[in-house]
Amino acid sequence: MQPETVTSSNISFEEYRNQILSDYKIALISRECSLLGRREVLTGKSKFGIFGGGKELPQLAMARVFRNGDFRSGYYRDQTFMMAIDQYTIEQFFAGLYAHTDIQKEPFAAGRQMGGHFATHSLNEDGSWKNLTQQKNSSSDISPTAGQMPRLLGLAQASKVYRNEKSVENLTNFSTQGNEVAWGTIGNASTSEGLFWETINAAGVLQVPMVISIWDDEYGISVHAEHQTTKEDISLILEGFRRDENHEGYEILKVNGWDYPSLMSTYERAEELAREKHIPVIIHVKELTQPQGHSTSGSHERYKSEERLNWEREYDCNKKFKEWIIDHNIATVEELLDFEKAAKKEVRQGKTNAWNAFISEIKSEQKEALEVLKAVEEKSANKNFISPLITSLASKEEPIRKDILEATRKTLRYLTKENFAEKLTLQNWINTYIANIQPKYSDHLYSENDNNVISIKEVLPVFDNNAELVDGRLIIRDNFEKLFDRIPEALIFGEDSGKIGDVNQGLEGLQERFGQIRVSDAGIREATIIGQGIGMAMRGLRPIAEIQYLDYILYCIQGLSDDLATLRYRTFAKQKAPLIIRTRGHRLEGIWHSGSQMGGLIHLLRGIHILVPRNMTKAAGFYNTLMESDEPALVVECLNGYRLKEKMPSNLSDIRTPIGVVETIKEGSDITLVSYGSTLRLVEQAAKELLSVGINAEIIDVQSLLPFDLHHDIAKSVSKTNRLLIIDEDVPGGATGYILHKLIDEQNVYQYLDSKPQTLSAQPHRPAFGTDGDYFSKPSIEDIFENIYSIMNEADPAAYPKLR
């Protein structure tokens, strides 16, 4: 075998030999980490483990062609790859197992994700971007199977944008003329997921530089491929996507996962096609093994036949690699045996180092707690109850923080009727400890940098004396035009977003003005529309992903919830994706186009701002605000607002709608009405009619649900009116229930109330079709009027006699 069959570089035999032996050492270390990691789980030092044993060789091949600027979007078995690109050490492997909360020790997630979930650091300490072209990049993994695929599409599409869009040529920290490849990995069983197929189709349409490696070991968890894949062969059923002389498509390559030289040449071929020609490639890596089964939660001996187990032992890729090295006189058996012994020793030492680093920090905290507790023990009359708590905590040679807080907090229970200085010391110690430790598990859900959304100050719209009344769609359209003029990295895409300028013409003419890359149509595939946005936002672009109607957000909720909403949190603020999702909803008639998902969204999308502007001027201001920040957001425009008349502001591009700030749109003294979006128009009309019966209502527009009323202005209103009604068209207990929780639990409005706080929402079903369907499914003006009147009747029956 000549060197050229393994690498295209013209190097000496000694260099060639060193490369191969370096790969062998990495494969050994990775496997030994997997083996020892499993033992750490089974002995109780870690909760769970999922490892990359059996996949070492193809990952070494992928690492060989992975360049600075490239991105990985992968699968939780890629530990060998991460080691091979020098982004993963033995100590970091075990720190992940132990959930070490130090981002320096566990750089992927600071212990927030289980091991096997990899991420490189895209951001500096101040939240600004690093130069991504000077490092090898991995987008942060998520566990949901195939959930990495939509994001992979966006990472690859960014290269296409950077190669073909002149307006972003100066963004050299993110791309070198679009030459970067996005490398995806997935297990063969996970290709059964719809997200995989949607991504495959979308990437084939877009023709982006994407290489997908399918690790095929014939099983998904314990389920054989015969139950997973038609014909039991994923590349066979993907043949229809293969490119030919008449059609663009994929290059599809097959290779055995134990064949080192073939793997190297296969990945070189894939890289050349993707990097130079932007042709997407699928590599089906077959005949892989999984020597430890799916995870530490079970043994593969339970579901694999003895024949299969014997085959796996024979075709283990590390074993076959060793045989190949010996057969080709690259190293002797004795030399490789020395490598194996050295790898075992190195991994054991790395494990010890990682454990000592992890446990020493907690042991120091344990020692502090014991000192405080012992001082309390000496003074307390309840020493007999406190002593066992101290003894229990002191006996723990491998404590966790839960042990420390259980002992100290339970001790306080025995001190409720005692007062001495040591008790105060204990109280202060607990409070300080929680204040210091809780952020290790809870911070960075939202940006804590200077350009976060709540730091951007309000700029009100300005209207000339002769300001023209125009359709709301023109305000949003003209604002987008000014945004795109000002921000060259801004782009927008979605169903009907391009040629016709969206279904409501809020983008009318913008594709002609800015081109098909920046204003583009997308297929009917919401999950990958969001994936496009996430991936491009992770590479320095400012995408706006349009989901045509609010109802369709359910198609992409998994990517929004599991990927985008958690990204900053799960990377300890080392990655970000400032994606804006634009949609519209409410008041259209019928089950499928007028539902309200708000109650679900506000709970599933913590980590994404949710904004509900009542008109297009407010919406325009939100987009302007968001483009100055570095956080993701969902903007729900009012579906019935595009043709309603609004004054055209003279300072359109300068407007900034504040986020987390409510607005009082009518002052009153009798009751506070809280609402948002399209429903506000009904509330305003009802308030006008209530004046005829002597009821003066105050109306507050929530404006943003996440975050919600940061200045507690609603409480100030309730302190004046002493009554509260929350109105929207979501299901009962949805967004109104969330708002009520915020007002009762956080703003303490109960102390001001003279009447029970109430909510008025839609029926608990999807809206029926037609005008009457809307009337009987959602709150009407009459419903709002009568509900408010009933509250006033209860307070003063004489002044407000019962209506019915």
List keywords for this structure.
single chain; 804 residues; alpha/beta; Rossmann fold; 4 domains; 7-stranded mixed β-sheet; 6-stranded parallel β-sheet; globular
Entry summary:
Its cofactor is thiamine diphosphate. The chain is built from 26 helices and 22 strands.
3D architecture notes:
This protein has four domains: 311 residues, 3-Layer(aba) Sandwich (Rossmann fold), CATH 3.40.50.970; 82 residues, no CATH class; 186 residues, Thiamin diphosphate (ThDP)-binding fold, Pyr/PP domains (Rossmann fold, 3-Layer(aba) Sandwich), CATH 3.40.50; 132 residues, Rossmann fold (3-Layer(aba) Sandwich), CATH 3.40.50.920. It has 804 residues and is an alpha/beta fold. The strands form five sheets. It has a seven-stranded mixed β-sheet with strand order 11-10-12-13-15-14-20, with helices on both faces. The protein has a six-stranded parallel β-sheet with strand order 2-1-3-4-8-7, with helices on both faces. The N terminus is likely disordered. Helix content is 43%, strand content 11%. Helix 11 runs antiparallel to helix 12 and helix 12 packs antiparallel against helix 13. The chain has 26 helices and 22 strands.
